[in-house]
Amino acid sequence: MKKIWEFFENLNEFVYVSDMDSHELIYMNRKMLEIYGFHSQEEIAGKKCYEVIQNSSEPCAICTNHELSSGSFKEWGCYNPILGKHLVLKDTMTEDCGRRCRIEIALDAEASEWQNGMLHSYQNLEMLVNEGLRIALQAATPDKTIEVILEYLGKALNAERTYIFEKNEEGGDDNSYEWVANGITPEKENLQNLPPEICANWYQSFSENKKIVIEDLENIREEDPLQYENLKRQNIHSLVVVPL
After folding, report:
1. Does 16 lie in the same domain as 117?
2. Is 58 helix (H, G, I), strand (E, B) or coil?
3. Backbone dihedral angles phi then psi of residue 217, each to the nearest 5 degrees
């Protein structure tokens, strides 16, 4: 099977192959290795495709693996916020000694292709978020939609974590949804039923139609010590919070 991968080596498109069940990277062609900062196939051995390609700690919410089959291609387009590129993608599946392999070929779209309707031109963050919403609304369930939105926002903003909290029946706050970047420790299980006083100042601001912007966590150390300790424990340095 290695000879098949070598066919892609010098293509001008981005090409990678991953195990569809374990998500481990099997191959990246020369162009893709270079853009992600690798020098050899040995450097990607054992790494997960979502960790390297999308900087996620878990499989991507928009993964197309469930749509792939041998002998046919899934064609779609998206903006990759990690690379800052609009891509036209072709995905397919092949089998190697019983191992299901995903092959993705990505073309770096030119402006003329956008104008032809292959991809829209996104000029600012608002349009980028709208693209995330478009993809999210195609998800199979409401929960999956929310997961896609959080993932897309996190990547678009180069954030380490995006999450949603909801007030529970006891008056505490529960972390209902969370996306974290690769290398960031998930905190969802540790952020259940937070005492009401921790976020009391935030709710007061929300009632006055104000958002929360913390550029440096140390700035709230004296004025909001409970929230400071909550965020400090998560190794958060800056944060934006808005009500939904």
Report:
1. yes
2. coil
3. -55, -35
* pLDDT score for 137: 67
Domain that holds residue 179: 160-241
In tens, the pLDDT along 33-56 reads: 999 999 999 999 999 999 999 888
Considering only CA atoms, which of 4, 9, 7, 49 is closest in space to residue 25? 49
pLDDT digits (tens, 9 = 90+) for 135-183: 666 777 888 888 888 888 888 788 999 999 999 999 999 999 999 999 9
Residues 79 and 6 in one domain: yes
CA-closest candidate to residue 77, choices 55, 93, 62, 66 = 62
Assess if residue 180 is contained within a domain: yes
Between CA 159 and CA 181 the distance in angstroms is: 7
> Which of left, alpha, beta for 179 (phi over 0: left; psi -120 to 50: alpha)?
beta
- Residue 198 lies inside a defined structural domain of this protein: yes
Give the model's pLDDT for residue 47: 95
Residues 177 and 86 in one domain: no
For the chain, what percent of residues have pLDDT higher than 90?
A: 52
Between CA 17 and CA 30 the distance in angstroms is 13
Are residue 117 and residue 217 in the same domain, yes or no? no
Query: Is residue 8 located within the same domain as residue 105?
Result: yes
